Amino acid sequence: MANEIAIPLLPCRSIDEMVDFYTMLGFRRIYYQVRPNPYVLLKREDFQLGFFGMPEAFKPEDSYGTCVIVVPDTGELFEAFAAGMRAAHGKLLVSGIPRMTRPRRRKNDGNHSGFAVIDPGGNWIRFMAARPLPEEEATSRLTTSLNRAVVMGDSNGNHERAAEILDGALERDKDTASAAELLEALVYRAELAVRAKDHAAAGHALARARALTLTEAEREQLAQSLAAIDDLEAVLGL
Length: 238
What we know:
With 238 residues, this protein is an alpha+beta fold. It has helices at 15-24, 74-89, 141-155, 159-173, 179-195, 199-210, 216-221, 223-236; strands at 9-12, 28-33, 39-44, 47-53, 66-71, 99-100, 104-106, 112-118, 124-132.
C-alpha cells in the first residue's frame, strides 16, 4: 500500500491549552470533543497531531510522549514556528515547558538536521530533515564536542551533561579553535544555560560570542547562529 497517513495521539493536561499553543505555530483545529473523553485533532499543511486529555495528576515534565516528523526543510519550518512565538510572546520559548530547540546537525541520526518542539503536554515533537547535511570536512575537536553536546542536550534532553561537555571543550580549545567554531559552541552553551535558568552563564557566553571577530563571509555563513544570539538576548532582556 501507499499514501498511508499516521496521526500521533499524545497526552496533555488540557486540550484547550494545546489548541492555543499549536494555533500559535500555524495549526488549525479540525476536530474537538470534550465528552466522553477530551480529544482534539490539529493540522498544519499535510501533518496532523492528536491530543487526549489526562487526569489532573498528569505532569507534563514526566511525559514520555514523543514522535518524529520528517520534513523537507527544518530551517524553513523552524522560522515559521519562531515567527508565531515572537508574535505571541515577543521572544522564542527556549526554556521550561513549552519550548523549542533550534535546527542543528544530529550526529546520532546520520547528519540530518533536527529540532524539537516540547509542547505544553511535555510531548517532544521531533522534526527531522528528509535529507542529511553534507559531511563536515576536517572536524575540529571543538566541533566534535559540540556535536556530542547537541545529541545529549537536544536529543536526550540532558542539558546539564551537554553543558559539562561544552565547558570542558571551550576551555580546552579556546586558543586553537576558529572564531566561527567558537561562535557556534558559545551560542549553544548560552542556550543550555537559559534552559537551566543560569542567566549569568548565558550572558557570559553571549558576551564572548559578541566579542569574536568574524569576516563578512563568516557572518553570512553563521547568520542563523547570529540570529540565535539576538533571540537569546531578548529572552534575557539584554
